[in-house]
Amino acid sequence: MNRKELVAAIAEQCEIEKKQADEFVQCFVETITKQVAKGDKVAIPGFAKFARVDRKARMGRNPATGETIKIKASRKARITPLKALKDAALTGKVPASKIAK
Questions:
Q1: Which of 87, 59, 84 is CA-nearest to residue 73?
Q2: pTM attached to this predicted model
Q3: Region for residue 10 given its phi and psi (left: phi exceeds 0; alpha: psi -120 to 50; beta: otherwise)
Q4: 21 C-beta neighbours (distance < 10 Å), count
């Protein structure tokens, strides 16, 4: 599913216009991105956790030569799927919608 398909699915599910759904998706992504960039963790129960991970410099080993090398410090984005999402992906069963109609 790409962004256009996601926006269409949200618009249909929530019975709103595609333009509103697109604005929602854009705001959602921007908000999570800003918070993670600041170093805050974002957790959406039943979906995923988003976090910035700062890795310290460390010593490693070149697997081809066995030579010891220095690995410089780095920063990564970590996205961890939570139990409900993992269960849905593994079983193929989607949990009931909590959206009131």
A1: 59
A2: 0.75
A3: alpha
A4: 19
